[in-house]
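User: Could you go from structure to sequence for me? I need the amino acid at each position, not a summary. Structure tokens:
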């Protein structure tokens, strides 16, 4: 196991009512019981609880994400250290044990006695009948945890990767069949690494180079991203949302690969753009920035609450050309949409398998059956929204997954039924290293240091026939 350096001072605060470890267990319980995501839960706790110090905040974040990333290995250990059926164990006890084992085996310079002692105290407060069990399992882990033998790499490569790198075995088997051993191993390793903090400079207010200079001047680290011309990798002592530059709209937090989707669409100032499944508007606002806030963008989403958040984001960034439209993208919208848009972005709902670094809970939530439910929905949305593209216009299909059935298979199926659309090469804003031989845009955590994204640029012919495949967009 690879230890993470954590100062032992984190663990000497005593059994406070609102200790980071107790808060981590509560958050993990919510994730398991309510299907919630870690990021908004953490943001809520850290914004409300002012008793947490800087070190407390770091510890809480590490415990939540570290436990989620390594949950497969932790559950495998529990199954061998616990004498009963761990599959039937109460969620609260499981998460107390998971966080305890994570601290014992995946962190460094943490006193073992403090980990066990506080885990027992948390159990007494949250599940009194299980305090003895927690004490017994953690002490057994201290005695024999390092002696537990993982599945043999040669005899059971899928089992070995699944346990050592904490991915569901069905997913490992799937990737082994598609990518082979080395690629699968590299991807699973990368999924367990904490991703960098990347932000998008708001070119309406400040160029990337200027923003980097200002952040460095204030004592922060800031380096240009490799692939996105608007991106910076930043190093901050606290949350980015606390910076003046964030509050005043000079940047937006966004993964580098996610930033590239706007460049796939390649909008031009003055155009009429439709962003389908816009969500809270991270990509929508980037499109507006590239357009110089000139033209018109219609943001379509089924969730009114997300559109409210989009309007707030646009206001912070100083954007005025976005109109919101609440509706289900599977169904025909107003007649005014028909062949009305120069460019349409379909950022489709997907499994999120490309974002496991940032959303490790997806690994333990997604099932093979649920994965198969996405392509029919994606095909339905793409087919419907193609009707809104003008003759000669551009349609971009994108996802944040690396599953072929959600990506190229959806696009190829669409092209078979829509002869007036053709796959074309992405424009100059996309690095050629991210364009595969088949003409699709793809990024991977282990290859590019970004989230895993997919994109296809489709051009509608001016007449009724198909344009030449993989021609220039121009």
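Assistant: Here is the amino acid at each position, in order:
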């Amino acid at each position: 196991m690879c230890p993470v350096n954590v100062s032992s001072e984190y663990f000497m605060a005593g059994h406070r009512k609102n200790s980071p470890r107790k808060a981590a267990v509560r958050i993990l319980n919510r994730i398991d019981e309510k299907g919630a995501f870690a990021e908004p839960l953490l943001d809520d706790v850290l914004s409300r609880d002012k008793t947490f110090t800087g070190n407390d905040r770091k510890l809480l974040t590490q415990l939540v994400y570290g436990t989620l990333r390594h949950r497969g290995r932790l559950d495998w250990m529990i199954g061998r250290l616990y004498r009963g059926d761990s599959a039937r164990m109460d969620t609260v006890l499981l998460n107390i044990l998971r966080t305890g084992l994570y601290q014992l085996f995946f962190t460094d310079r943490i006193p073992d006695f403090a980990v066990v002692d506080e885990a027992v105290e948390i159990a007494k407060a949250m599940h009194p009948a299980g305090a003895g069990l927690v004490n017994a399992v953690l002490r057994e882990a201290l005695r024999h945890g390092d002696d537990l033998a993982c599945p043999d790499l040669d005899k059971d490569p899928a089992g070995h990767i699944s346990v050592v790198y904490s991915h569901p075995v069905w997913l490992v088997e799937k990737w082994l069949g598609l990518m082979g051993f080395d690629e699968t191993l590299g991807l699973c390793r990368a999924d367990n690494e904490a991703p960098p903090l990347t932000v998008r400079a708001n070119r309406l207010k400040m160029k990337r180079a200027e923003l980097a200079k200002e952040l460095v001047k204030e004592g922060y680290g800031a380096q240009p991203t490799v692939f996105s011309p608007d991106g910076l990798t930043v190093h901050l002592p606290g949350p980015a949302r606390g910076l003046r530059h964030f509050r005043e709209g000079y940047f937006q937090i966004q993964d580098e690969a996610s930033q590239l989707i706007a460049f796939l669409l390649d909008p031009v100032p003055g155009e009429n753009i439709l962003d389908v499944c816009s969500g809270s508007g991270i990509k929508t606002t980037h499109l507006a920035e590239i357009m110089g806030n000139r033209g018109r963008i219609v943001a379509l989403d089924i969730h009114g609450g997300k559109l409210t958040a989009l309007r707030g984001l646009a206001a912070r960034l100083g954007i005025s050309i976005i109109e919101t439209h609440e509706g289900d993208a599977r169904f025909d919208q107003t007649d005014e949409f028909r062949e009305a848009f120069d460019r349409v972005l379909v950022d489709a709902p997907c499994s999120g398998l490309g974002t496991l670094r940032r959303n490790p809970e997806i690994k333990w939530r997604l099932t093979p059956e649920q994965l198969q439910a996405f392509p029919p929905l994606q095909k339905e949305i793409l087919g419907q929204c193609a009707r809104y593209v003008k003759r000669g216009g551009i349609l971009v299909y994108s996802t944040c997954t690396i599953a072929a059935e959600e990506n190229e298979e959806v696009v190829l199926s669409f092209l078979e039924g829509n002869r007036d659309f053709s796959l074309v090469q992405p424009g100059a804003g996309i690095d050629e290293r991210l364009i595969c031989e088949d003409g699709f845009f793809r990024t991977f955590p282990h290859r590019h240091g970004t989230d895993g994204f997919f994109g296809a640029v489709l051009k509608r012919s001016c007449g009724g026939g198909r344009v030449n495949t993989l021609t220039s967009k121009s």
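One structural detail worth keeping in mind: Residues 355 and 451 are 5 Å apart (CA to CA).
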